[in-house]
Amino acid sequence: MSPLFSFFLLHIIVSAAGAQLRPHYYSESCPKAEAVVRHVMKKALIREPRSLASVMRFQFHDCFVNGCDASLLLDDTPTMLGEKLALANINSLRSYEVVDEVKEALEKVCPGIVSCADIIIMASKDAVALTGGPDWEVKLGRLDSLSASQEASDNVMPSPRANASFLIDLFGKFNLSIKDLVALSGSHSIGQARCFSIMFRLYNQSGTGRPDPVFDPKFRGKLNKLCPLNVDQNVTGDLDATPVVFDNQYFKDLVAERGFLNSDQTLFTFPETRAFVQLFSRDQHEFFKAFVEGMIKMGDLQVEQQGEVRRNCRVVNSRHPVTPRTCP
């Protein structure tokens, strides 16, 4: 890890402590904001249930890179390589159009008021609540970044091959605990992932030319059929046995050695994370409680930078950025 990257992480952690965010931020300037977001997310759920899982993961992929500032949503320009084509995002993140729909709806109700960064936070929460998970009060008041960096994303975001030790170290740099790591990994309770992400587990784990030994045999056979060696690696499989319902089935699957991703299954095989996997597999209430705590902490990640409220979440709209908001 480079000294510059280490400084970058420290900068996020220090800034997070002083981030001036609060619930009901738009109660006067745009009182219908959260209701509008929920309405659009409900329509997205009806149209394509998988899209909610994709939108929920925007918060993780955005907040870990330059803080929660919607840098993830910026399209590339001739002078800027953004985050959408970063290794962890390309051919993986999808449903950006749902955020576009939310933004369009909000601009009709209260133009120029609600930031794209706050939309990500609200939409992620709604994605969980609308699929059977917990609901919670979000803190708002973020500004949108004026730039994005593919390199910054590549330097931060973990790969599906990551093990628990690496993930513990990474999350710790953002002041997120081992419990936070395991709970937030439960976001994989809904959604799918590509065969690309598990080919090495199925056929060449750790360069052995053999499958990962930590596989339930029947589950591995199912994945071999889904993802044979000659498969189109963009074919997708369910991340747990109930991929459209936010519940604790994900953790039950890990205990049964039916985790889809290496970065998931390793949470059960690694001693420091195993106890939390077992706890959450037994007690859904404890999982929901810990997940909400982790999402709120992750949503607090901020950097001290200039920003604006974008009119279009994909492009910067102002040459005259405003300084970060402060609470009255």
Structure description:
By secondary structure, the chain is mainly alpha-helical. Helices cover 47% and strands 2% of the residues. The chain is globular. A two-stranded antiparallel ribbon has the order 1-2.
Secondary-structure map with pairings?
Blueprint: H1 3-17, H2 33-47, H3 50-63, H4 96-109, H5 116-130, H6 150-156, H7 164-172, H8 178-185, E1 192-194, H9 199-203, H10 217-226, E2 236-238, H11 249-255, H12 262-269, H13 271-282, H14 284-299
Helix pairs in contact: 2-4, 2-5, 3-5, 8-13, 8-14, 11-13, 13-14
Please give a quick description of this structure.
The chain is mainly α.
Strands, count: 2
Distance between the termini: 39 Å
Tertiary shape: globular
Nearest-integer average pLDDT: 91
Largest sheet: 2 strands, antiparallel
| Helix and strand run | HHHHHHHHEHHEHHHH
Q: Strands across the major sheet, in which order?
A: 1-2
Strand proportion? under 5%
Radius of gyration: 19 Å
Q: Helix/strand-derived class? A: mainly alpha
Helix content: 40-55%
Low-confidence stretches: 1-8, 10-19
Count helical runs: 14
List keywords for this structure.
328 residues, disordered N terminus, globular
